[in-house]
Write a structure and sequence with these properties.
InterPro entries: Metal_Hydrolase, Pept_M19
Shape: globular
Order of helices and strands: EHHHEHEHEHEHEHEHEHHEHH
Number of strands: 9
Protein name: Dipeptidase
Strand content: 5-15%
Helix content: 25-40%
Pfam families: Peptidase_M19 (PF01244)
Radius of gyration: 19 Å
Structural class: alpha/beta
Bound molecules: zinc ion
Length: 354
């Protein structure tokens, strides 16, 4: 079954983790053996061959770079200009991957239709479609930079990531969006970009909903009902998103899937982290919505963790092909399963880009 993954940090892996994603996962792991500079060395789950094997033919791929003020202990750049330059290096990698026919950027309905035709008919090395997104808006020095990004194909943007950002407060921080945040949201609406609500803290989330009227999704998200932490959305937040025709992509990061996960210590098997938990989250959103129109997949499988912090039944991203059978066991019909694995996000894009 065709799979749409609404959140992968592909360029971050290429440019910061130094991974050649054109190689099989096994080769990337092999070369990282013995390295300890990142917690997920030797454990990666994502590369282009694995995506092709798993029929993950379309994804939302990010640019990401944080700006940190002096008092912010999080890792990040010391100026917004540096953060911008980092995202431009990432963009250059995407462009190089396009030239190598590994990837193709999708920026409108026509591109979407063409991509599906090519994906089905191409018997050789299939070109993976990507929609460009910015995770955390710190690198937008001023709004002219957002216009520039839009021209480069940017189609979605999350105002914040972790901590206090320039335009909003993200995960594990508390605060609103301020004047700058409001101006950013206005520009997002004007450019018909998709707002990614993932990572907004509660206060910034609700302030955003007060002023924003454009398209919104949550690209890599789980439900607070199962793991009570500000990174997950409450039922009220999920209902708000559903009322705005959002699609919510379910992520596969272990600490957000089960309570009491301790990074670097807990073991997926011991903690019972498997794809069933993803299905529980999907089912919960379907129950809240009363239909199957608002949930999809947004794995974040390369978001700074690998097999050490993912479901034990996912060795590589190609294992997403286990999802249809798991949904079927829960009574989901073939049509529902197609909607969840790709069609909901595709319909969303077609509506927004019309
Ligand atoms: Zn994220």
């Amino acid at each position: 079954m065709f799979i749409f993954d609404a959140h992968l940090d592909l360029a971050m892996n290429a440019m910061e983790w130094n991974r050649d994603l054109t190689l099989p996962v096994s080769e990337i792991r092999e070369r990282e053996k013995g390295k300890t500079d990142k917690p997920d060395r030797g454990n990666t789950t994502v590369s282009f061959p694995a995506m092709r094997k798993g029929n993950v033919g379309l994804c939302v791929a990010t640019q990401i770079a944080r700006y940190v003020k002096k008092e912010n202990p999080l890792p990040g750049w010391h100026s917004q200009h540096q953060a911008w330059a980092q995202t431009q290096g990432q963009l250059a990698w995407y462009k190089a991957m396009e030239k190598a026919r590994e990837m193709v950027q999708i920026r409108d309905t026509e591109g979407l239709e063409n991509h599906f035709k090519l994906w089905e008919s191409n018997k050789g090395k299939k070109t993976i479609g990507y929609i460009l997104s910015l995770e955390g808006a710190d690198s937008i020095v001023d709004l002219s930079y957002l216009e520039k990004s839009h021209e480069s194909g940017l189609r979605a943007i999350g105002p914040a990531h972790y901590g206090p950002g320039v335009y909003a407060h993200g995960t594990d921080s508390v605060g609103g969006i301020g004047v700058k945040g409001r101006e950013l949201l206005k520009k997002i609406e004007e450019l018909n970009l998709i707002l990614d609500a993932t990572h907004l803290c509660d206060m910034s989330f609700w302030e955003t909903m007060d002023v924003y009227n454009g398209p919104v999704w949550a690209s890599h998200q789980l439900c607070r009902k199962f793991v009570d932490h500000n990174r997950q959305f409450s039922d009220e937040q999920l209902k708000e998103l559903i009322s705005r025709k959002a699609v919510i992509g379910i992520a596969l990061d272990a600490w957000m899937m089960v309570p009491n996960w301790v990074r670097g210590k807990s073991d997926p098997k011991e903690m019972g982290v498997n794809l069933e938990i993803m299905i529980n989250n999907m089912d919960h959103i379907c129950q809240l919505a009363g239909n199957t129109n608002h949930v999809g997949i947004g794995t974040d499988l390369d978001g700074g963790f690998g097999t050490e912090q993912g479901p034990y039944d996912v060795d590589t991203i190609s294992d997403l092909q286990k999802i249809p059978a798991l949904l079927s066991q829960r009574g989901y019909s073939e049509t529902d399963i197609q909607k969840i694995t790709s069609q909901n996000f595709i319909n969303f894009l077609k509506r927004v880009w019309r």
